[in-house]
Amino acid sequence: MTSDLAIFWPAMAAGLLVAATHVPLGIQVLNRGIVFIDLAVAQIAGLGVVFAHWLGLEAQGYGVQLAAFAAAMGGALLLDRTDRMWPEVQEAVIGVVFILAANAAILLLAANPHGAEHLKDLLTGQILWVNAAWLPLVALASAAIMVVWLGFGPRIGRIGFYLLFAFAVTISVQLVGIYLVFATLIIPALASRRLRKWRMPAGYTLSAAAYGVGLLLSAVSDLPAGPLIVCAMAVGGLALLMIAEKRV
């Protein structure tokens, strides 16, 4: 039981930190109609991680963090540019960027004997093995993101939003994986879209409940935590959406 708790609390803390920034940013992504930008930027950040590993940098070192951040920022600036040039096809451009980054990562991992395992970790994450020593730094970064967003959100402009978003995704994708990043951004925002006054609290509650349920189910079933959390969030999101629809 003690060992289970030792694994559970850092994983739960990581999930709550990811949700803290991703729920409000997800609402903005949904409002802007660029739903798949998070998936694209997360995949680009993941490509940065793979490239850093390919160069032989230490897995948990600052070099990997900088590579992921630089890749995500570059991707965000690219998407800002394409949004200015071709706003009518921005969603299609985002899709192309995502698939290009995904296949570039596969090519970099092709010669690695553990490539399939690394790719799986990148997609589904290893939330149960979060390094607790990193959590205070993640909490500080998350607080900074929230201060900027809540204090200056409407004034940072489109490029400011893309860069802030890239920063948030860079942190979260290495904690929980690409799939959980996407789920935490979009499902709470989508499920609570009919709520107005209570939209943010509902999104946070759904996220926290999904992470808690998914981690508990993983502990009792020995199934991977990431997919269980995504499924729990989807089921909870559907329930919230149906309740909200009835109240309208």
Q: How does this structure look, described?
A:
- The protein contains 10 helices and no strands.
- The protein has helices at residues 2-32, 37-54, 62-85, 90-109, 115-124, 135-152, 157-176, 178-191, 199-221, 225-247.
- α8 runs parallel beside α10 (225-247).
- The model has no long low-confidence stretch (mean pLDDT 85).
- Radius of gyration, taken over Cα atoms and rounded to an integer in Å: 18 Å
CATH H-tier superfamily: ABC transporter involved in vitamin B12 uptake, BtuC
Q: CATH top level?
A: Mainly Alpha
Beta-strand portion reads under 5%
Q: How many separate structural domains? A: 1
N-to-C SSE string, H for helix and E for strand: HHHHHHHHHH
Taking all residues together, what is the mean pLDDT?
85
Q: Name the poorly predicted regions.
A: none
Helix share bin: over 70%
CATH architecture: Orthogonal Bundle
Sheet with the most strands, sense and barrel status: none
> How many helix segments?
10
